[in-house]
């Protein structure tokens, strides 16, 4: 038999409770590489997943890292993050945004500013292999 997979094989009732019965976040503010930064400390009575996220995000942390550390599916983490964003407890930083005007390029060529950093890609690959 195969080992249980974290998040995927969790009790569905627990995931239902964590999300308040929702199956997706009500906004599209998050993708896998969105960096999350907490704006406050956890408060007493706060759901444990929200409190853990606030503690983990004292420094910018990617959504995919949160999912792995919390051992929850990304879709569930996005719902919890959406709740935190709505209450102003976190901010979301999108690393792809740039204020510089796009440089002219040849047809079919990807601008260097839009290419991911190879170091980050290597770290993601290592993380995926460890799953």
UniProtKB/TrEMBL annotation:
It comes from the Bacteria. InterPro entries: DUF742. Residues 1-14 have a biased composition (Basic and acidic residues). Residues 1-21, 90-116 are annotated as: Disordered. Pfam families: DUF742. This is DUF742 domain-containing protein.
């Amino acid at each position: 038999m195969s080992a249980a997979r974290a998040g995927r094989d969790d009790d569905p009732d627990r995931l239902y409770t964590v999300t308040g019965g929702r199956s997706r976040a009500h906004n599209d503010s998050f993708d896998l590489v969105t960096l999350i930064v907490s704006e406050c400390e956890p408060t007493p009575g706060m759901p444990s997943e929200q409190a853990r996220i606030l503690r983990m995000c004292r420094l910018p942390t990617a959504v995919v890292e949160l999912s792995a550390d919390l051992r929850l599916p990304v879709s569930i983490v996005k719902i919890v993050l959406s709740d935190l964003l709505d209450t102003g407890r976190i901010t979301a930083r999108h690393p792809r945004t740039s204020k510089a005007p796009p440089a002219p390029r040849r047809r079919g060529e990807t601008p260097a500013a839009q290419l991911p950093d190879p170091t980050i890609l290597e770290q993601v690959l290592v993380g995926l292999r460890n799953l």
